[in-house]
Design a protein that fits this description.
The complex is a heterotrimer of chains A (about 350), B (about 325) and C (about 375). Chain A contains 16 helices and two strands. Chain A is mostly helical. In chain A, helix 4 packs antiparallel against helix 5. With about 325 residues, chain B is mainly alpha-helical. Chain B is about 75% helix and about 0% strand. Chain B has 13 helices and no strands. Chain B starts with a helix and ends with a helix. In chain C, helix 3 packs across helix 4 and helix 3 packs parallel to helix 5 (about 185-195). Chain C contains ten helices and twelve strands. Chain C has about 375 residues and is of the alpha/beta class. In chain C, strands 6-7-8-3-9-10-12-11 form an eight-stranded mixed beta sheet, with helices on both faces. A four-stranded antiparallel beta sheet of chain C has the order 2-1-4-5, with helices on one face.
Chain lengths: ~350, ~325, ~375
């Protein structure tokens, strides 16, 4: 087209009304928003800590976790920071070395379950009709069947239920929740105009799914992944505690298994079972915090309004359900009503 | 009641799926568990049992898979879950029937208490959003991240071993003969308190969080603002408008989370050596008693399905939309 | 209202209407276009196989460099017509001719060739752009699909040119923006640019301005008019705002309950409506010069059920002139005179038939 000059000329009268407004807003990207969330930041920090531990664990552990010694069932001391177990093995080393097993299983199970969930959920949502009915029924079945007993009977009958095997079993049984959430979201996305527009542009179906639909599901997929990892960690630790996975593979559940079977409770050896549990709790908390961050990103209504609440209180406004601030007419406070209303939640794009 | 019928049909389908999974799991997994087992048990198992095991595990070469499946169903419909081989020749069905009431009593009651209490607390926190109540959130986060059984361990260490307030294991005083006397019931309650409390404490956080988030979401709806605007007392708004609507997803998520919660709390039975299904499953796993394991899984699943159906009935009663449907 | 209140070729008529009146073949033509949707949950009441008669036997011809407006209330089937023409949905019946040849695309390649020539603009620019992709991605995809692999400078040039065509200048200010950083008007311009990337011959605009602020609607309409003139596009302009049809379109079709009830040049249709429904539609628009006076015979009743549409003329339950004939037989599109440039005008109303039992149309309003 050789008419670009005309275009600019025409643009002045015709387009001046809307062109040129609203472009000054800085390009705030959602990713940065996520990192500004303090909860998510704490969660990521803890996760990174355990991640490093999982990589370098065997080198930084003070002892070989299987190394028996004569210091039987010692409380924490300078030599053994977290004490020893009934055969004199160092518990701190067991925890450090066991980190890798926990994280690897969590990661593998999370990846497997998420992949299955994405495939089933997005397919069901996008295909619709009979395929959708079948796939949703399948995921509902897997949702309702209690997972842990199912995992137990599968894992217990496998000849060798090592870490990766357990991870795969957890992945195969734990995808349903993600699939369900993704299906619902895909259903609503499929009806959006931009999917239709992509079709009208001539995009292929697989490209519409991968490039148009999936990126809009990122937050939900991430949340589902983190949730599954949490579940996988808990399940795997539980399996190890019950004694289904080989006790020669160190993870935090194995430590608890030894503690339980050697009457650590009755002997008052708190250092044996408390630290491992706290590690599990810490890791689980980190994952949950990350999920909160994602949730608040997706649903801005959940954002905590701590600061905001404090300002309101200072002005004598009580925030309650509905967040319609109610002002006691004490003279000075009355004028703040308008301003308080301005403080209401920012309803951003993600809200739609 | 179209809604309830549809749900009931779905649960029937799920029951069928669970039973079918139960049938196929031992057949699809590699290896010959029976031979491995006979070797491990070293003749402690009767040779008759071996035959019945082979049938159960589908290692009976004379029958096609379909015939085995039909046979399996026939056995099931007669209430025959096979024979346990740690307690040989006690039928699995008998063991499971003995254990089930204990589980329903402990896990069931504790879960319902946790749900009701958690929903109430969640309503409060969601209502007082932006105040000190928000600081309860990290605590609930911590509890939701802890494995249930570990809390059980801590509870035993603190309240049973150190303080000696409660017994550390068992479900009633071993010196007593089970009967319907006050004394026995009191003993059951005494032994059940600590496990029940632990289950409540560990599972309550999920309900609190769920209800809190629903309250926050519902609270920004226009009808809540309108209720405020027409001057209703805060209490009426919270209970009649916000919580009334927030409870619907809470109930449906109760149905969905039940499988998860029950799975977690069953481990608690193992920690407390409480003679329910979970403990039985634990013993079956540690003694490789496959028929018992599968029987336990089946009974657990079916119980969860029944509980789900009840939750759906409650949902139908709470949600006018399901009533209108037909 | 008397018949010739307006002077032919009124100054507010659409620009550039004169030279393209040649009788060439239409670019895109639909003959007897029909779309029936199966009713969900069939079996309850309406019986099995019940369908929604969304579009019934619509004839339509789009000519290069001309704008056809399709006017109707919500649910009249006008948006379905756009989706059928874009082949986003398969038609139940009727033919689709592109450049005179059957254009029913079977298979992906044929469909891609088709959309290369027929492009669509959606109603809601807030929904039709994917929020996760910047403008660059959206336009690059459209360019690559229809113009093959473009890289580096070549791609940059094509992007700039596209943005300049829709008057988003300087282009580099917009090319890396995300949809949420743009205003509604800007987004709609991006959507138009995406459609233009294919170098189409036909542009189907499904209510392109109804979701925009009133203040920027004119800008978008002028842009479309400009594109029509410079690129010689055939444009289908779908709207419920009959006033904008008069401003923008050369030809106007009025749809009611899935059927075309009146067609003709925009000026005549809007100034001298023949079909009782068109009269009703125009009468319901507020008159800026006399807001206080509500004309007699404002629309009564509601749009009919499209599952079981009324027999005969679908408008007869609401029509003040309806007779037994209207309820019994479906009126064809009858010639009802000519526009200022001699274009034929048609209306699907028995009132214009030479039959003894035809209804008598009286003027709906008496000009004081």
């Amino acid at each position: 087209m050789a008419t670009s000059t005309t275009a600019i000329e025409v643009a002045a009268p015709a387009g001046a009304d809307d062109v040129g407004q609203g472009v000054a807003r800085p390009g705030r990207r959602p990713r940065l928003l996520f990192l500004r969330n303090s909860k998510a930041l704490v969660g990521i920090a803890i996760l990174v800590f355990f991640g490093i531990l999982a990589v370098v664990g065997p080198w930084v552990a003070p002892y070989d976790p299987d190394q028996v010694s004569t210091a039987l069932l010692q409380p924490p001391s300078g030599a053994h920071w977290l004490g020893t177990d009934h055969t004199g093995r160092d518990i701190l080393s067991q925890i450090i070395v066991g980190t890798r097993g926990v994280l690897v299983v969590g990661l593998v199970a999370g990846l497997g379950a998420t992949a299955l969930g994405v495939v089933v959920g997005v397919t069901a949502g996008f295909v619709g009709g009979l395929g959708d009915e079948g796939l949703s029924a399948l995921s509902n079945v897997f949702l309702v069947i209690p997972q842990l007993p199912l995992i137990i009977i599968i894992a217990a009958q496998l000849p060798s239920a090592g870490g990766i095997t357990v991870a795969l079993v957890i992945g195969v049984t734990g995808w349903a929740w993600g699939a369900r959430v993704l299906r619902a979201q895909t259903l609503s996305l499929r009806k959006r105009d931009f999917v239709e527009a992509a079709r009208a542009t001539g995009e292929r179906t697989w490209r519409i799914v991968l490039a148009e639909v999936l990126p809009n599901l990122t937050a939900i997929i991430a949340a589902g992944f983190v949730g599954t990892v949490t579940f996988a960690v808990l399940s795997q630790v539980t399996l190890a505690f019950i004694g289904i996975t080989p006790v020669s593979e160190w993870n935090w559940g194995t430590i608890l298994f030894w503690a339980q079977n050697n009457l650590a409770l009755q002997r008052g050896a708190w250092w044996w079972f408390v630290p491992a549990g706290l590690c599990i709790a810490l890791l689980g908390m980190a994952l949950t915090l990350i999920n909160f961050g994602i949730d608040e990103l997706v649903n801005p209504r959940l954002r905590s309004t701590g600061m905001h609440a404090r300002t309101l209180r200072r002005r004598g406004i009580r925030p309650r359900v509905g967040f319609t601030p109610v002002v006691r007419p004490t003279g000075a406070g009355a004028r703040d009503v308008g301003r308080a209303a301005l403080h209401q939640e920012p309803h951003t794009e993600e809200d739609r | 009641m179209r809604f309830v019928l549809r749900r009931a049909a779905f649960y029937l389908f799920t029951a069928w799926a669970a039973i079918t999974i139960n049938f196929f799991v031992p057949r699809l997994l590699p290896g010959d568990p029976v031979t491995a087992l006979m070797g491990r048990m070293q003749g402690r198992i009767d040779s008759n049992a071996e035959e019945s095991l082979r049938v159960l595990f589908g290692l009976d070469q004379d029958m096609s898979l379909w015939d085995q499946y039909v046979h399996y169903w026939q056995m099931l419909l007669h209430g025959d879950l096979g024979l346990s081989f740690t307690h040989f020749p006690t039928p699995v069905a008998d063991i499971v029937t003995q254990a089930l009431p204990w589980t329903v009593g402990l896990v069931g009651i504790a879960t319902i208490i946790a749900f009701l209490l958690g929903t109430a607390v969640g309503t409060g926190i969601g209502w007082r959003r932006g105040t000190w109540a928000d600081s309860l959130l990290p605590i609930t986060t911590f509890f939701s991240a802890v494995p249930y059984f570990w809390l059980g361990l801590i509870a035993i260490a603190v309240f049973a071993v150190n303080l000696g307030w409660f017994p550390s294991n068992g479900s009633y005083d071993r010196g007593m003969v089970p009967s319907l006397s006050w004394e026995f019931v009191g003993s059951v309650i005494y032994y059940g308190t600590l496990p029940a409390l632990t289950i409540v404490v560990s599972s309550i956080s999920g309900w609190i969080l769920g209800m809190r988030n629903m309250m926050v979401t519902v609270s920004s709806e226009d009808y809540v603002t309108v209720a405020h605007a027409k001057g209703l007392p805060a209490r009426a708004v919270v209970v009649g408008y916000a919580a009334r609507n927030a409870i619907l997803p809470q109930v449906s998520s109760f149905a969905l989370a039940l499988g998860f919660v029950v799975g977690g709390t069953l481990v608690m039975e193992m920690v407390f050596s409480y003679q329910g299904i979970g403990y039985t499953l634990f013993q079956a796993v540690s003694t490789h008693d496959y028929p018992l394991m599968q029987g336990c899984f089946l009974v657990i699943t079916l119980s969860v399905l029944v509980a789900n159906l009840v939750a759906d009935l409650a949902y139908a009663a709470l949600d006018p939309r399901t009533r209108q449907e037909g | 209202m008397s018949v010739h209140t307006t002077v032919p070729g009124a100054p507010d008529g659409a620009p550039g209407a004169s030279p393209q009146t040649d009788p060439r073949e239409p670019v895109l033509e639909a003959v007897g276009l029909t779309k029936h949707y199966p009713v969900k949950g069939a079996g309850r009441g309406s019986g099995r196989g019940a369908v929604v008669h969304a579009v019934d036997g619509v004839d339509l011809a789009l000519h290069a460099g001309r704008v056809v407006a399709l006017v109707g209330e919500s649910g009249s089937g006008k948006s379905t017509v756009a989706r059928l023409l874009a082949q986003l949905q398969p038609a139940t019946g009727g033919r689709l001719l592109l450049g005179g040849a059957d254009a029913r695309a079977r298979g992906r390649r044929a469909f891609r060739r088709y959309v290369g020539r027929v492009q669509m603009i959606f109603q809601d620019p807030f929904a039709s752009l994917n929020p996760v992709h910047p403008v660059r991605y959206t336009l690059t995809r459209a360019l690559r699909i229809h113009r093959g692999r473009l890289r580096g400078d070549e791609l940059e040039r094509a992007l700039t040119e596209l943005l300049e065509r829709v008057h988003l200048t300087p282009a580099e200010r917009y090319v890396d923006k995300y949809p949420h950083e743009l205003s509604g008007g800007q987004r709609q311009r991006i959507a138009i640019a995406r459609a233009l990337a294919a170098d189409p011959e036909v542009l189907l605009a499904d209510e392109p301005i109804s979701m925009l602020d009133v203040s920027i609607r004119l800008g978008i309409l002028n842009l479309l008019a400009d594109l029509r003139d410079r690129l010689h596009l055939a444009i289908l302009y779908i709207t419920h705002d009959i006033a904008s049809a008069r401003y923008f379109a050369d030809t106007t079709l009025v749809m009611y309950a899935g059927r075309v009830v009146e067609s003709g040049d925009s000026e005549s249709v809007t100034q001298d409506p023949k079909h009782p429904y068109t009269r009703l539609l125009l009468a319901s628009a507020p008159d800026p010069e006399n807001l206080a006076e509500r004309p007699e015979g404002t629309p009564r009743g509601e749009p009919p059920s499209l599952v079981r549409p009324p027999s005969g003329c679908r408008f007869h339950p609401r029509c003040p002139f309806a007779t037994d004939l209207c309820a019994a037989e479906t009126p064809p599109l009858l010639d009802v005179g000519h526009g200022p440039a001699g274009e034929p005008r048609r209306a699907a109303c028995w009132g214009y038939a030479d039959r003894a039992d035809a209804p008598v149309l009286t003027s709906p309003e008496v000009t004081p």
